[in-house]
Amino acid sequence: MALDPDNVRVALTGAVYTAAKGTTAPTNATTAFGAGWTDLGWISDDGVEEGYNDDVKEIKAWQGGATVRRVIASSEATLKFTCIESNPDVVELYHKGDTVGSQKIEVHSPTPDERAFAFDVVDGLTHMRIIVPRGEVTERGPIKYKTDEAVAYDLTVTCYPDADDLVLIKYSDDTDWA
């Protein structure tokens, strides 16, 4: 394979969306989101981090203790991002199961809040879209109130598999993906 600098991508901008689980998502990288999808607004300049935590087990042989095989016992996909808008959608996502109303939110112990998520990654005219049909905020960083920083909501979404073991879908309009 030849080296091609035109294939180097930079996530110059993008967006994070959420919707009720089961909401119809676009099936390509550029179609506008339909009813039910909410753009969470400004994301910190750290962008979005996609990660995988694989629990790999080594199979050792009796003869000499050599590793003869490795198997993935479990795997978890996550997407991390930090919202820097204090809008109702972000505040409700952070405070799982609670609702903003009458200019307040009453924060209770968190309840399950499974949703659909989408992440747009844009590099000039090239778009990539990640769709998470089933996900949930499973980690929340502390909120810092400080004079020289935006109030920020650090969130980690864990992707749950569907019946076919699908955890996320990636679309791109990059011609090299054809």
Question: Can you walk through the features of this model?
Answer:
The protein is mostly beta strands. It is built from one helix and ten strands. Strands 1, 2, 3, 4, 7, 8, 9 and 10 form an eight-stranded antiparallel sheet that branches. Strands 5-6 form a two-stranded antiparallel sheet. 17% of the residues are buried. The mean pLDDT is 95.
Largest sheet: 8 strands, antiparallel
Number-wise, the strands total 10
Radius of gyration: 19 Å
Distance between the termini: 17 Å
Counted by DSSP, the helix tally is 1
Classify the helix fraction into a percent range: under 10%
Helix/strand order: EEEEHEEEEEE
Low-confidence stretches: none
**Shape, per Cα inertia axes:** globular
Q: Roughly what fraction of the amino acids lie in strands?
A: 35-45%
User: Can you give the mean pLDDT?
Assistant: 95
Structural class: mainly beta
Structural features:
single chain, 178 residues, mainly beta, 8-stranded antiparallel beta sheet, two-stranded antiparallel ribbon, 44% strand, globular
TL;DR?
By secondary structure, the chain is mainly beta.
Topology of this structure?
Blueprint: E1 13-20, E2 38-39, E3 49-60, E4 67-83, H1 88-94, E5 100-101, E6 104-105, E7 115-123, E8 126-140, E9 153-159, E10 169-172
Antiparallel strand pairs: 1-2, 1-7, 3-4, 4-9, 5-6, 7-8, 8-9, 8-10
